[in-house]
Design brief:
single chain; about 375 residues; Aspartate Aminotransferase, domain 1; Aspartate Aminotransferase, domain 2; 7-stranded mixed sheet; metal ion binding; cysteine desulfurase; PyrdxlP-dep_Trfase_small; iron
Length: about 375
């Protein structure tokens, strides 16, 4: 029985071209980009080219891209760094109840250090209301942070509308675009996005590398101290190998973005239609018309998520009950709690399936058939 990977929202396999590029840099470039000799200049050239390609992918200026160790560090720098640098303007921050833990735990840290945090609710489809953002704004608000695409449900938030709302307000607007990057066209300047975070390992790039975009006008304090790398905002000798792997992943992503989006739409349709044909009872958490096509979160009445995940694994299906950062935890998904409330049965009956490079029409259909068999067995 061949295993089938349906957990691309957790991480994606390295693209062979990314591996090839990283291996080349490992063999040919080892200098420190901060060194002024030829070895250092060669490494700096690699860094500069990667920064240029990645900046262009979101229509940003090269100097506004800061490489980090991933989405979590970028989110922490965006929230905590911005809050610390702007506390003279106010101490109020707005976010939502369903953010990734990298944002939520950063917000909790700020709350413990004197900042006032508003956690906005979402509706049953997992969408935050633009009106709720408007009503929560005060003269003390210095930052609004709303994720672009939810990592558990795939729901696309009204980012453009929220950013437009903040155009004439002092508050900066940050969006965690980790799950959006590679599927949605992002133009940070036209959309009035002040800070944006991504991670390479969600687009078939290496783990351990991401970036934070900050507009030129954003005041932000570093969270670490040392050398003058990344224009003093993120010190430490740069990871050239991962940076160039990220660059190659972005280049490949840009070439195939539209094709992938259509392909994932087909995969999702095949997946859901096969479950229906197998006469399996399920409901969709969220609204497909307002979601990215590669993530679908389903609730199966009569099953319990932990035993379901165990059986999926035994049948060679890799899926998740929520974000990978909380995998193995018995706590219910905070995203589904935000959508349905603490006592709703769907919280303990839901699984996230996410499609990507490891899939094709055949294994999507086979996966749905195996899943249907497990559901029928568990609900006898």
């Amino acid at each position: 029985m061949k295993p089938i990977y349906l957990d691309h929202a957790a991480t994606t396999p390295l693209h062979p071209e990314v591996i090839k590029q990283m291996h080349l840099i490992m063999q040919t470039v080892f200098g420190n980009p901060s060194s002024i000799h030829a070895y250092g200049r060669k490494a700096r050239q690699v860094m500069d080219e990667a920064r240029r390609v990645i900046a262009e992918s979101i229509h940003a200026n090269e100097k506004d891209i800061y490489f980090t160790s991933g989405g979590t560090e970028a989110d922490n720098l965006a929230l905590i760094g911005t809050a610390l640098a702007n506390k003279h303007k106010g101490n109020h921050i707005i976010t939502t109840e369903q953010e990734h833990h990298a944002v939520l735990h950063a917000a909790e840290y700020l709350e413990q250090n004197g900042f006032n945090i508003t956690y906005l609710p979402v509706n049953e489809n997992g969408l935050v209301s633009v009106e709720s953002v408007k009503q929560s704004l005060t003269d003390e608000t210095i930052l609004v942070s709303v994720m672009y695409v939810n990592n558990e449900t795939g729901m696309i938030q009204p980012i453009k509308e929220i950013a437009e709302l903040l155009k004439d307000h002092q508050a900066y607007f940050h969006t965690d675009a980790v799950q959006a990057y590679g599927l949605i066209d992002i133009h940070v300047k036209d959309m009035h996005i002040d800070l944006l975070t991504t991670s390479a390992h969600k687009i078939n790039g290496p783990k351990g590398i991401g970036f934070l975009y900050t507009a030129e006008t954003v005041q932000i304090s570093p969270l670490a101290f040392g050398g003058e790398q990344e224009r003093k905002r993120r010190p430490g000798t740069e990871n050239i190998v991962n940076v160039t792997g990220f660059q190659k992943a972005v280049e490949l992503m840009l070439e195939s973005k539209d094709k992938n989006r259509d392909m994932y739409e087909d995969y999702r349709t095949i997946f859901l239609d096969t479950l229906k044909a197998e006469d399996v009872s399920f409901s969709i958490n969220g609204e497909l018309r307002q979601a990215v096509p590669n993530i679908v979160n389903l609730s199966f009445p009569g099953i319990h998520v932990e035993s379901f995940l165990t059986n999926l694994d035994l049948e060679g299906i890799a899926a998740s009950s929520g974000s990978a950062c909380t995998a193995g935890a018995v706590d219910p998904s905070h995203v589904l709690v935000a959508m349905y409330g603490q006592d709703d049965s769907r919280i303990n009956q839901s699984i996230r399936f996410s499609f990507g490079r490891e899939n094709n029409e055949e294994n999507i259909k086979e996966a749905a058939q195996r899943i249907a068999s497990i559901v029928k067995r568990l609900t006898k």
